[in-house]
Amino acid sequence: MAKAIRHKLYQGYRYKDILVLLGDVDSYRLQIGKIFDKYDIPYYFGKAESMSDHPLVHFIDSLERVKRYRFRTEDVVNLLKTGLYGNFKQEDLDLFEQYLIYADIKGQSKFAKEFTIVYKGKNI
Questions:
Q1: Which residues of 87-113 are buried (b: 16+ CB within 10 A; e: fewer)?
Q2: Which value, to the nearest 10 degrees, does the dihedral of the CA atoms of residues 50, 56, 60, 61 take?
Q3: ∠99-100-103 over CA atoms, to 5°?
Q4: d(CA 109, CA 47)
Q5: Domain extents for the chain?
Q6: CA 86, CA 109: separation in Å to the nearest integer?
Q7: Distance between CA 36 and CA 48 in Å, rounded?
Q8: Are 26 and 17 in contact (CB under 8 A)?
Q9: What is the pLDDT of residues 28-63, one digit of tens each?
Q10: Which GO terms describe its molecular function (predicted)?
Q11: Any idea what the Cα angle at residue 98 is, between residues 112 and 94, rounded to 5°?
Q12: Rounded to whole angstroms, how far apart are CA atoms 71 and 107?
């Protein structure tokens, strides 16, 4: 892993671009410390969090659900709410979700067609 990180740095990546996720930090803490020190790689052990709470896990799960359930409204909205697919304000996501429910837009065929949101007399 340390060699791969050094290679990424050689390619122009910065330390802040690299994140290592571990399932059980305590099992690897000493090994990582020794190896990263040897390769002069700074490291920090953040607080333990459940992997299931990570936004990337939610993103992948939502993406898979969008495909499996053929664009159910809640799956599309959950995908957008992860924050990893576009840069949307929460207010805009809430409005979008309300419109999808109001206009009964669900299913791959409806999402494949262009649709316009008319809100307060304006096309959005």
A1: eeeeeeeeebbebbeeeebbeeeebee
A2: 40
A3: 80
A4: 43
A5: 2-38, 51-123
A6: 22
A7: 20
A8: no
A9: 899 999 999 999 999 998 877 777 888 889 999 999
A10: ATP binding; DNA binding; exonuclease activity; helicase activity
A11: 100
A12: 5
